[in-house]
Design brief:
Length: 303
């Protein structure tokens, strides 16, 4: 039998003074109410109530058990009320994962604005370019770049992610400016270690979509490191527009081979399906959709 229901019936019998009244409260027969009490006594190996034809009274063990049941049932009610409150207003903790560049340059300031609007929510943001299992890693939401796999998760596209090719003016003065994508084979192409080292860069060129070109001698798993190498004039960098836009605007890097830039990929929010998703997640998703799909979020003028 349902142990919690049996405890509720027991408390009702004590508070209301009869099996009949307790049975009516829980919409069951007196015989079923008596069965719940007997079930508790059998489980505990103790008599909880002294029964006569006219009245029932608690044994010493019954008095102690009644007090504990009251506390337990009160805690359960408090927990349920807390859960209901979480469904009525955004509150609680969100665990989010994102790629490093988008997470640090775009998502982090958006999260700060979200938290200012919803003071009862907190966020733990994990940045990594390694793809983790959202459910197994117990994340509430992941931001992914590119077309998401059919993972059974909800997918909301919030924008496009453009990669651009740049080099420092000093590098181009020394080595010349490549005119076609195939010219990159004669240059130092700064390589991102999460890409396939055997294929190098994948570009959108007249020589065929997805044409590949050899990487250079500098490899890193961090876009900022590659950016610094490019600024130092060591090679040509292919990294997100978000990471390089300020350097381009300031003239520290020069965009090249724009016709060969990879096709922009979708930015997608991924999160588990939940028929009754908590407001902390639904408000976060809608906030990010508004933030990144607003008309003002257009490509910079140099693109």
């Amino acid at each position: 039998m349902d142990r919690l229901l049996s405890m509720e019936v027991f408390v009702a019998v004590v508070e209301l003074g009869s099996l009949t009244a307790a049975a009516a409260r829980h919409e069951m027969s007196p015989a079923m109410a008596a069965k719940h009490i007997k079930g508790l006594e059998a489980r505990l190996g103790l008599r909880l109530m002294n029964r006569t034809t006219r009245r029932q009274s608690l044994t010493e063990a019954g008095q102690a058990y009644f007090a504990r049941c009251k506390l337990i049932l009160s805690d359960i009610r408090d927990a349920e009320q807390g859960a209901e409150a979480m469904r009525s207003a955004p509150r609680g903790h969100l665990r989010i994962t994102s790629t490093v560049t988008f997470g640090s340059f775009a998502l982090a300031p958006a999260i700060a604005d979200y938290l200012s609007e919803y003071p009862d929510v907190s966020v733990d943001l994990a940045l990594s370019d390694a793809v983790e299992d959202v459910v197994a890693s117990r994340y509430d939401l992941a931001v992914r770049i590119g077309e998401p796999a059919d993972s059974g998760l909800v997918a909301r596209k919030i924008g496009r992610y453009q990669m651009i090719i740049c080099a420092a003016p000093a590098y181009l003065e020394r080595h010349g400016t490549p005119e076609t994508a195939s010219d990159l084979a004669r240059h130092q192409c700064l390589d991102f270690s999460y890409w396939n080292r055997r294929t190098g860069w994948r570009l959108n060129s007249q020589e065929g979509d997805g044409a590949t070109y050899p990487a250079g001698r500098f490899v890193s798993n961090n876009g900022q490191a590659l950016r610094q190498a490019a600024l130092a004039g060591f090679g040509i960098v292919l990294q997100p527009e978000l990471l390089l836009a300020e350097d381009v605007r300031a003239g520290r890097l020069v965009p090249i081979l724009q016709s060969a830039w990879p096709v922009a990929r979708p930015i997608t929010l991924l999160y588990p399906k939940d028929r009754k998703a908590l407001p902390k997640l639904t408000t976060f998703v809608e906030f990010m959709v508004r933030r990144f799909t607003a008309p003002a979020k257009q490509q910079p003028s140099f693109c």
